[in-house]
Write a structure and sequence with these properties.
The protein has about 550 residues and is of the alpha+beta class. Strand 5 (about 125-135) and strand 6 form a beta hairpin. The longest helix is centred in the N-terminal third of the chain and has 24 residues, at about 75-100. One of its GO terms (biological process) is proteolysis.
Length: about 550
């Protein structure tokens, strides 16, 4: 009897997939129809919500949310940093759209079948799933939960590890009435669990409990999958989102209550031969194909050349090490000794150390804001800092020798800091932290100028210039007329320099002609040593480089997207 029920459920799952198909590849691989909203039509569309409305905030809302640790008493600086970036992006993208709303043109959702199959590596062992693209800021796809499958649209997020969908028992949250909800009574394979669970985000949280059921993803059926039924979705973040839930593809180490992630169960149930999955994110605004995630391999038609691999260094997020960071072929000096990096499909932009982002923005003429602590430090102690560097003092020790930072670079200890900054309303720790950070940024900039053999006054002028034009918390704009003359930037990963060009890569352009607005694809993020400096390579980078997440060999690979 049990075997009969299982066969029936499998048949129903196949029928569920067939209902979503636009076309099927000749080798039997299933591709699910995708929706895409081209960025030009989205920004100027008649139905695009105005800045500040519920629709607008939630349309870009997932860029402003992030999962915290499963243990509410546990503090993870990396998680908190990602959280901060997501909140920052939400504000920034809201302002971008507000600036672009001047011309409000037509907006619509369009449907189109998946393009003809390409060459799938490892043949029929690959399991492709089409992704939808919303505003080039969110990528998500369709799954089924239960038997018969109940359809849900989810974000495939490499920076979290849990699957959650709204529950039919969610009756007190408005957001649940605008999304599909899971009804356990309608599934013959449902198994009760009941363990309470919460996931905390930068703009709110979801609450619910664990249940167990089968999950259908493309042509794969994952049995006995633990997931969270969300019974409470407060705030505006999920109210008008175009997705129902989130499917995490991170490691079990960050899973709430230690539940096995969907990807882990795919492996344990031998649903994939190769323990890899890959992302292709389409950044072509004129193409309605949003992208593709492939479980068990990679589609060779989506990349050119070989992948360059680097090993995972922290089994939580897909974290690895990178070498130097270059602007126009010149070293910034930020990551000469290495930086931690996270490949994150759930983050829209590229986030990095503020000292590096400030250098990028100086070279591309991006708008910014002045940092008075930084300007004061350079004005009053710039010559002393240069002399220490000239005397071969290690850059990490310069600020501690002056008295702005402790010997470990944690924060300042100088008795004169408060009078130098003229701040009286901040605590001593807040003031000293800000001054230490400002000093360390200035040292980094001065050190990078030493390589260029600039004069002492030239180094001070450069540092002061950057202090006066720090990355803006609401986004940094550039002149669209100058994009063609901006420098390339590059990340050194696995021995290869991965370049990003300004056109269609690290500069985000909205509109055409006199209505055009251009914004930097970089945002600031500061995590101090020993965990930092940290970079987050989001969709801006993953759109340029096809990405393979190799769980079997604990590595991440990048190749030019095709």
């Amino acid at each position: 009897m049990g075997h009969t029920a299982s066969r029936i459920c499998t048949l129903l799952s196949i029928l569920f997939v067939s209902c979503m198909l636009a076309s099927a590849a000749n080798d039997g691989l299933i591709r699910i129809a995708l929706k895409k909203r081209p960025i030009m039509e989205s920004i100027y569309g008649d139905l695009v919500p105005k800045s500040g409305t519920v629709d607008h905030e939630v349309a870009l809302g997932y860029s402003g949310v992030r999962m915290n640790s499963a243990d509410e008493g546990f503090y993870d600086p990396v998680t908190e940093a990602i959280n901060h970036v997501r909140v920052h992006q939400q504000r920034m993208l809201r302002d971008i759209e507000a600036a672009a709303m001047e011309g409000r043109l037509k907006h619509f959702w369009s449907y189109r079948g998946f393009r003809e199959r390409g060459s799938l590596k490892n043949g029929t062992q690959n399991h492709p799933l089409a992704l939808k693209n919303f505003l080039n800021a969110q990528y998500f796809g369709e799954i089924g939960v239960g038997c018969p499958p109940q359809n849900f649209t989810v974000v495939f997020d490499t920076g979290s590890s849990n699957l959650w969908v709204p529950s039919a028992k969610c009756v007190f949250s408005l957001a649940c009435y605008f999304h599909r909800k899971y009804e356990s009574r309608s599934s013959s394979t449902y198994m009760e669990n009941g363990t309470p669970a919460s996931i905390h985000y930068g703009t709110g949280s979801i609450h619910g409990y664990y249940s167990q059921d089968q999950v259908t993803i493309g042509d794969l059926v994952v049995n006995n999958q633990e997931f969270i039924e969300a019974t409470h979705e407060p705030g505006l973040t999920f109210l008008a989102a175009k997705f129902d839930g989130i499917l995490g593809l991170g490691f079990k180490e960050i899973s709430v209550e230690g539940a096995d992630p969907v990807w882990y169960n795919m492996i344990q149930q031998s649903l994939v031969t190769d323990k890899v999955f890959s992302f292709w994110l389409n950044r072509n605004a004129n193409d309605i194909n949003g992208g593709e995630i492939v479980f068990g391999g990679a589609d060779e038609s989506h990349y050119k050349g070989d992948h360059t691999y680097t090993r995972v260094t922290r089994k939580a997020y897909w974290q690895f090490e990178m070498g130097d960071f270059f602007i126009g072929g010149r070293s910034t000096g930020i990551c000469v000794d290495g930086c931690a990096v996270i490949a994150d499909s759930g983050t829209s932009l590229i986030a990095g150390p503020i000292a590096a982002i400030a250098q990028i923005h100086a070279h591309i003429g991006a708008t910014g804001v002045a940092n008075e602590e930084c300007k004061q430090v350079v004005a009053r102690h710039g010559h002393e800092m240069l002399e220490l560097l000239q005397d071969k003092t290690p850059p990490a020790q310069v600020c501690s020798k002056i008295g702005f930072c402790k010997s470990d670079g944690a924060h300042g200890i100088s008795d004169g800091i408060e009078s130098v900054l003229g701040e009286t309303h901040k605590s001593a720790d807040e003031v000293s932290d800000a001054t230490c950070n400002a000093c360390e940024m200035a040292v980094t900039w001065m050190q990078s100028e030493f390589v260029q053999n600039h004069t002492k006054e030239g180094k001070l002028e450069y540092a002061n210039q950057l202090c006066g034009n720090m990355p803006s918390p609401v986004g940094s704009y550039v002149d669209c007329r100058h994009i063609g003359h901006l420098p390339n930037v590059a990340f050194s990963i696995g021995g290869r320099a991965f370049e990003l060009t300004p056109e269609q890569q690290y500069i985000l352009k909205f509109g055409e002609g006199f209505l055009a607005h251009c914004m930097s694809g970089f945002t600031a993020l500061d995590i101090p040593p020993p965990i930092g400096p940290l970079w987050i390579l989001g969709d801006v980078f993953m759109g340029a480089y096809h990405t393979i997440f190799d769980y079997g060999k604990m590595r991440v690979g990048f190749a030019d997207s095709a």
